[in-house]
Amino acid sequence: MTSDDEFTMSDEPDTAAPGAGTAEQAPSRLTRWRTAMATHPLRVLLAAGVAGAVVIGATAVVTNAIDGSGQVGGTKIGVGERVAQDAFTQSQAGDCLQWEEGKPGAPSKVACDEPHRFEVAAAVDGTILPGGEFSESAPWPGPERFSAIRTEHCPTLVTSYLQGRHDPQGRFVPSLIYPSKAQWERGQRDLRCGLIEQGIGGSEMEIVGKVADLDQSQQWAPGTCIGINPQTRQATFPVNCAEPHAFQTTGVIDMSARFGARTSGKRWPGIDEQNKFLTPICPVQAHRFMGGKRKFEKSTLNVQWSTISEIGWLAGSRKAVCYMGLPHRGGFATLVGDARQQLLINGKIPTPPPAAPPGRALPTPVPLPPGIAPNPAEQPAPAG
């Protein structure tokens, strides 16, 4: 199986058949997809035999703030064999699937309180979808089309599965498992929308527990470097710090003690309240992480942090991430290296200013999940 999600689904009207009226009257492919999703039960279909490699991968885009491509792995299925009633073909909403790292083609069903890499939100039988795109004779749609399907449908199915309590800016992202070309050619049409947590390089991390019972906040360990998209200069997913990245985390702050636990029912603290709470905390944490205030100042980076949206708060998110980065041309400057050792900013060794500029220890929000705007008082990034 395979997955991808970096493209947006087209909602173009289909060409009307003779006598069908205007294009405006003819239902679009997207409309028919939505109708089918609403009127047909989501069920499993055991398809025909599969040959070659089965590949599962995952990518994610969270409110246009995180994106990237996942790792792929494979496992052989004998030529001419029938698809067995295995963990994937039998999986339903609420099931949790696990596989060995790098071998996602052989998933097994496990209890959700055990480590797993995928929580199924919806099992979709592609043969019920109208328009012929999933018919027996249809060509394999390809990664870009499956990406569009994921982008259009999985977030809605995931939100429905979680009864509205999904933090779209949190650590669990909608993903799609779909047939490889070899499987498709032998009749496989099953799809699975579900939830993953992305790790280094976009790979699927192990999760313990059901998402509905977990704090959905981003919870990167101190020192984690988050990659950068070179075109958009936005953050992606965790990478090795020797690779280009947007920022480096210094720690996670649990705001439940101040504003109420996820089960407390307390109101959402606005962004201003969260900033007021985090303003004295994240700078101290950055200095401790770097080994002293002077070492932090030599990095020329800014102290920054995330906040929780109201949607995220209602979903149970309670943790903020403190991190170090530098705004640059509407996004992040490109960092290479661990900030505690040798750091390059836009390809150059940073030159510390003679004194800390105004705003150095103030909240300096730049695009990070959950996405906030740059502070004009920030030190500009070195020209790259």
Automatic annotation (TrEMBL):
Protein name: Septum formation-related domain-containing protein
Keyword Transmembrane helix: yes
Stretches for region Disordered: 1-28, 348-384
Pro residues bias locations: 364-384
Domain Septum formation-related: 93-322
Keywords noted in UniProt: Membrane, Transmembrane, Transmembrane helix
InterPro entries registered for this protein in UniProt: Septum_form
Highest taxon above the source species: Bacteria
Transmembrane region(s): 42-62
Segment forming the signal sequence: none
Xref: Pfam families: Septum_form
